[in-house]
Each structure stands twice: as C-alpha cells, then as structure tokens.
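#lab-general

N.A. 3:47 PM
ok so I finally got the sequence cleaned up, no stray characters, all 123 residues accounted for. can someone with queue access submit it? mine expired

B.Y. 3:52 PM
send it over

N.A. 3:53 PM
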Amino acid sequence: MNLSELFATPGLGVMSTSSSDGRVNSAVYARPHVIDEKTLVWGMTDKRTYQNMTRNRHAAFLFKTNGPGFNGVRLGLELIKTEEEGDLLESIKKNTEEIVGPGAGAAVTHAVWFKVVEIRPLV
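B.Y. 4:20 PM
back already:
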C-alpha cells in the first residue's frame, strides 16, 4: 500500500494511544505528513494523546477514506522523536490554521515522528 497516495485522499483519521497503566485514549486526527513510506509525522497539542506518547511509545492510527465502503488502513506506530521547533512544526501550525481556523495553530506545540511498524487493511 502506498501511504503517500492514501493520505492524499480526504478521509477521517483516529489516533489511539495508551497511558503507561493501560488507559486507552482515541482522538480524531488529521492525515499525517508523509516523510517516506515508513515515517509519518503529526502535529500534537499537550493534551492526552501527546501525554500518553511520552509514557508509552506505541500507538495505532485508523484512517477511513471518504466515500462508500470501508477503504482505508490501520497502522501500528512507534514513536521516533518529538520536535518543539523547526520548519515542519511551523508548516503543521500553518496548515492547522487553514483547516481549523484562526488561532488553532498556536495550540500545536509538537511535531511527533512515528515509524510505521504494521500496516493492515481497514476491514
């Protein structure tokens, strides 16, 4: 599966993480920035998803493309690194402003890099 092509398609994404004591959190997330077919980056705020990532390096991302049927993917992810400054984070903040609205980009404080460790079909 070509992730660059898939994430060029509009759809709905859900990021799932777990705290160090196993409490699961799921949140709606935008499509990632595709660095290459094994490296994806999301912008994150300081809320629960990011806090969980600081305690448990593993996450899952479900993406369903728009339209009929169940086209999409389920990804197993492992945290590589986080960045609190830089060009990529600034680009993510700008994109957030355009999609969510004025002021929304200010809440995005981290560019979070993941290695794709598993790719599974949506169904």
